[in-house]
Amino acid sequence: MRDQTKRQPISIEPIPILETNYVWALHDGQQAVLVDPGRADPPLQWLKDHSLTLAGLLITHHHWDHTDGIDGILDVHQVPVYGPKDSRIPQVDHPLEENDSLQIEHPELNLKILSVPGHTSIHLAFVGADFLLCGDALFSAGCGRLFEGDAEQMQRSLDKLAALPGQTRVFCAHEYTLDNLRFALQVEPDNPDLNKRLEQVVRMRRHKHITLPSTIADELSFNPFLRTRRPDVIAAAQRKKPGCGSKPHEIFGVIRSWKDKA
């Protein structure tokens, strides 16, 4: 007879909202946790359609497209809200910070918390056994704009994420992959991994397929913001801004500014 006490594996599924956002749903077939609900109605309908009970919300940072759905969801489901200690997210009732551990019984989750500021002054990432929920800190082939942080701060944050095991699956919050790859090609036009990934993503988006998750190993092979110590990326940045220096955060700053204006 099948062991009824055996834990079900965690599934991670996207709930599309707005133009490019994904609310990630982590579930075991019975209970679910939602990540960064920028709207309430689509996640609520998704839970209903899948007959799942909501167990909690995970929030990475304060931007409206990650938080505007919190109140609407809490009106229906009184659940814990885990996230950074930030007055701009008053719904967080279980504040977390760097190196905290978060255990949720159902669905069974054991998460490590990383502080990854740069995109915003306060930003968390949630790291599971083989996955990363990184909000807007890291995108496939890209990273978040520096709205509140600086290049040196963001470089440190990305270094933390780059140090995760290569097989770690990267679940970021936006479908920006194709645009990011097209920009990355300006930085490293001769990168074979980048060109291969671009061809793959063009096909995927033609059929409106999601391009996520990526992996840390893949991102290290083609994401220019994780490659600021690579000779080709350094050379490209120095051609773009002669005299910019060669430290990783200096290279990052040039590439980020270049992308912002692209």
What structural class should be given to the helix and strand makeup?
alpha/beta
How many domains, as an integer? 1
Rounded to the nearest angstrom, the distance between the terminal CA atoms is 59 Å
Q: Please tell me the CATH architecture by its name.
A: 4-Layer Sandwich
Helix content: 25-40%
Under CATH at level 1, the class stands as: Alpha Beta
Main sheet: strands, sense, barrel: 6 strands, mixed
Low-confidence runs (pLDDT<50, min 5 residues)?
A: 1-5
Silhouette: globular
Order of helices and strands: EEEHEHHEEEEEEEEHEHHEHHH
Radius of gyration: 19 Å
Number of helices: 9
CATH homologous group name: Ribonuclease Z/Hydroxyacylglutathione hydrolase-like
- CATH topology, anyone? Metallo-beta-lactamase, Chain A
Supply the key terms:
single chain, 262 residues, alpha/beta, six-stranded mixed β-sheet, disordered N terminus
Would you write up a description of this structure?
The chain is an alpha/beta fold and 262 residues long. It has a single domain (11-225), classed as Metallo-beta-lactamase, Chain A. The chain contains nine helices and 14 strands. Strand 1 (11-17) and strand 2 (21-27) form a beta hairpin. Helix 4 (151-162) packs across helix 9, helix 5 packs antiparallel against helix 6 (192-206) and helix 8 crosses helix 9.
